[in-house]
Structure to design on (607 residues):
């Protein structure tokens, strides 16, 4: 089982090694029985959005489909996900 | 008519409830040391507590969340845990001071040994909280605290040189021992902006189920209550300045502070002053013990509330009992409550940003607050005070060490 | 809660209220099932001081230990609604929440005036 806290603050890196920042939140959508995770909120200064000072839309949201694997403290995503 | 009466009664209680032991100690000592020179600090502190109380009262009215709920949701678990631990330490210290202060005044009134009176005070507070409804507690201590108004009478009757008083409202730095002067500036700000007042105020708002329509009333409450309460602080400083400064007396005992009134208004004045201090500090003890229980309960998500009977919020009730016992043990060690008060106020100043930054952030958060978020005035003042708080917080400990806690 | 939302911002650390409006904990963490290549879902709320270690390292573990280390897992199907709080479909005791208050209550009730 994974937990929300295990995603928070993990580094997000592309397969070619480019650092995109840290994962500071997850995007989700409510379904009938659960909340489906649709993406990672990644970026620097994401803590400002957490305080509600800035909105997340201005930061990168990486769709979950682009997540290749999770290893150690890093989340690896496809190169084209960085936008 | 009933509404106006209710508002007036509430305001009276707020005036009586404004002054706590930190205000008593720092305002009188500042007057006794620097005369009227520090008068200007009091309005700054009072506006600060008004600005932030109004903000968290508004958050309570719009989101139904008290300070610590909001803190956990907005600054994250880790920072909230830090804020919780530091606020509980400061709260417990403050509670111990207030309890010791109550025991000192009881001793002056009765002559019974001090340690017995500490226990008697703690037990009677526990009984009062357990059996009476909170409305009555608030009124009893608020109206009793109004006896403190004799300080204002004494301050005027003694005939201060109003020119010097006026000059004291112009912000300036004293060239005679500037370090000690700054130490008092910080202490006076800390005493006026004590964090427990904000916790208590916002939780009260949630309990009384304020809604957005109550925002106006919240604003009026904060401005009038704290504003008028602040005049008592001014009176304390003036009494300190007129009675003690010329005579080389240091009001390092709570009884001495009351004697400042006895000097001008005689025995009856002295008695009123002591009774006023007793109720004001007693009321502050109860507010403080509740603030500590609110914070822990809100952080953990427990049921809480001063309007609930103890069985309705068991862990909340246990928390205030434990805090009361712990504070009793601290004062029983024989630590001087007045000295402890100085430390409590200075430590609370250090922890101030942890309380006030989250409030400012939450009050700005449109996803919480919608159209009731901070306007330009609240934000300008809020940010201004945040800078003041940060500066004060960073310099508090160095100044305390440099001035040997105000002893030089 | 409609449409896409920030899970951490809107669910984490929120107050839990049972069907009678009783406060019965905060959302301390969320259980997620599924990984890369799947469609992961938040399947449960994790509640209690036992979950604090993951949130704040040693300080969280220490605080959680002092807090008794209790843990509860509330299936997402028990969630009725999410607004500024998370509302649950059943009562706290049935869901294994608020047990600290439940255990303490009988002792407090022995003192006269506990239900004034």
């Amino acid at each position: 089982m994974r937990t929300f806290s295990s995603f928070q603050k993990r580094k997000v890196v592309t397969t070619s090694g480019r650092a995109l920042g840290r994962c500071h939140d997850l995007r989700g959508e409510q379904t009938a029985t659960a909340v489906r995770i649709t993406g990672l909120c990644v970026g620097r200064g994401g803590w400002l959005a957490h305080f509600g000072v800035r909105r997340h839309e201005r930061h990168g949201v990486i769709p979950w489909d682009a997540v290749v694997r999770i290893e150690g403290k890093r989340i690896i995503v496809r190169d084209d996900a960085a936008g | 008519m009933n509404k106006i009466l209710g508002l007036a009664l509430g305001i009276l209680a707020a005036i009586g409830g404004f002054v706590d032991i930190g205000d008593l100690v720092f305002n009188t000592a500042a007057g006794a040391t620097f005369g009227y020179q520090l008068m200007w600090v009091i309005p700054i502190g009072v506006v600060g507590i008004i600005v932030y109380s109004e903000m968290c009262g508004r958050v309570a009215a719009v989101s139904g969340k008290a300070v610590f709920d909001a803190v956990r949701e907005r600054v994250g678990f880790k920072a909230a845990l830090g804020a919780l631990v530091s606020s509980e330490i400061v709260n417990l210290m403050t509670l111990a001071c207030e309890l010791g202060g109550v025991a000192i005044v009881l001793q002056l009134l009765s002559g019974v040994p001090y340690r017995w009176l500490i226990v008697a005070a703690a037990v009677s507070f526990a009984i009062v909280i357990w059996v009476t409804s909170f409305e009555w507690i608030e009124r009893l201590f608020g109206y009793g605290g109004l006896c403190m108004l004799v300080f204002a009478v004494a301050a005027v009757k003694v005939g201060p040189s109003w020119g010097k008083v006026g000059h004291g409202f112009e912000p300036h730095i004293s060239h005679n021992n500037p370090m000690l002067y700054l130490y008092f500036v910080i202490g006076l700000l800390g005493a006026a902006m004590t964090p427990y007042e904000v916790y208590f105020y916002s939780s009260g708002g949630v309990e009384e189920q304020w809604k957005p329509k109550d925002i106006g009333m919240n604003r009026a409450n904060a401005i009038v209550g704290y504003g008028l309460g602040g005049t008592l602080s001014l009176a304390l400083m003036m009494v300190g300045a007129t009675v003690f400064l010329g005579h080389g007396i240091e009001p390092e005992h709570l009884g001495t502070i009351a004697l400042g009134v006895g000097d001008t208004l005689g025995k009856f004045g002295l008695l009123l002053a002591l009774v006023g201090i007793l109720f004001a500090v007693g009321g502050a003890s109860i507010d403080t013990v509740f603030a500590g229980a609110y914070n822990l309960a809100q952080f953990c998500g427990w049921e809480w509330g001063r309007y609930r009977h103890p069985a309705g919020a068991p862990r909340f009730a246990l928390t205030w009992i434990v805090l009361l016992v712990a504070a009793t043990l601290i004062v029983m060690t024989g630590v001087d409550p007045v000295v402890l008060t100085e430390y409590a106020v200075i430590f609370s100043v250090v922890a101030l940003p942890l309380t006030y930054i989250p409030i400012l952030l939450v009050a700005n958060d449109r996803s919480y607050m919608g159209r009731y978020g901070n306007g330009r005035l609240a934000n300008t003042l809020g940010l201004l005070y945040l800078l003041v708080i940060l500066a004060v917080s960073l310099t508090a400990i160095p100044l305390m060490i440099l001035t040997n806690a105000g002893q030089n | 809660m409609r449409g896409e939302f920030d899970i951490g911002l809107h669910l984490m650390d929120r107050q839990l209220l049972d069907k009678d409006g009783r406060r019965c904990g905060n959302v301390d963490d969320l259980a997620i099932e599924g990984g890369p290549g799947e469609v992961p879902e938040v399947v449960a709320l994790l509640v209690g001081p036992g979950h604090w270690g993951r949130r704040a390292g040693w300080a969280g573990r220490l605080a959680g230990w002092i807090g008794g280390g209790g843990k509860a897992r509330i299936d997402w199907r028990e969630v009725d609604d999410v607004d500024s709080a998370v509302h649950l479909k059943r009562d706290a005791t049935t869901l294994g929440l608020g047990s600290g208050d439940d255990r303490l209550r009988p002792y407090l009730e022995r003192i006269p005036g506990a239900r004034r």
Observations:
- The CA atoms of residues 107 and 114 of chain C lie 10 Å apart.
- The two ends of chain C are 39 Å apart (CA to CA).
- Chain C touches chain A at residues 1-9, 11-12, 29-36, 39-43, 46, 51, 54-55, 76-77 (CB under 8 Å).
